[in-house]
Recover the amino acids of this structure.
């Protein structure tokens, strides 16, 4: 099976712009989670989607949003970019929803976002 | 909110020495997962522990889940250069099983 894919892999934006990142989970996986990774804050949970519904949300401002489509692909959007949004954004997919047995997550390679 | 602390933050060992990283949660966890991230790579799932006091082994790696389900450890016996990377624990708790990653332990193995 193909792994989790994320596009684009690298992105450079300027402050105030918005960005949309895409994640395609492993075929058959219905749960997609998003994380932000920075050297200072480590891995921080953004949100989790299962069957097009947001099940969980981390402590990020409303500028961060996401959605999941019927084919399980997911997108996350960050509006009004700030310098501090520069990070590696990781997407992870799992077979079922978390909270059942803590499903094993498969991570994608990430999108490296740089905000200038 | 839930916090998961990991110690140490960094560890340098000579090849062949043992290594241990510890994870401590401020709340009781329903389960804990461990991941390894190689430099420049993405986290890769290693194992999941669910039961109180559970111990699991994978070759040179031993994982433990505390009796109170608030702490966990990963022990590597006789480290190799291929063990280099950052090891993260990830705990789930609460009604919606929100996941919290530990701060990570960066392991450097000196040949």
């Amino acid at each position: 099976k193909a792994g989790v894919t994320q596009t684009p892999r690298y992105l450079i934006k300027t402050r105030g712009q918005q960005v949309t990142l895409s994640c395609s989970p492993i075929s058959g996986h219905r749960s997609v989670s998003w994380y932000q990774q920075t050297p200072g804050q480590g891995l921080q949970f953004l949100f989790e989607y299962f069957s097009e519904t947001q099940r969980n949300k981390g402590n990020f401002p409303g500028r961060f949003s996401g959605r999941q489509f019927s084919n399980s692909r997911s997108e996350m959007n960050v509006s009004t970019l700030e310098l501090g949004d520069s990070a590696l954004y990781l997407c992870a997919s799992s077979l079922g929803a978390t909270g059942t047995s803590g499903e094993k997550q498969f991570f994608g390679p990430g999108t490296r976002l740089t905000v200038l | 909110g839930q916090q998961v602390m990991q110690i140490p933050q960094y560890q340098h060992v000579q090849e062949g020495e043992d290594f241990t990283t510890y994870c401590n949660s401020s709340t009781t966890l329903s389960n804990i997962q461990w991941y390894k991230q190689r430099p420049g790579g993405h986290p890769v799932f290693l194992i999941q522990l669910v039961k109180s006091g559970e111990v699991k082994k994978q070759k040179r790696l031993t994982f433990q889940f505390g009796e109170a389900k608030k702490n966990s450890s990963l022990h590597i016996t006789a480290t190799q250069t291929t063990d280099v990377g950052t090891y993260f624990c990830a705990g789930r708790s609460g009604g919606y099983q929100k996941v919290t990653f530990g701060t990570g332990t960066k392991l450097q193995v000196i040949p």
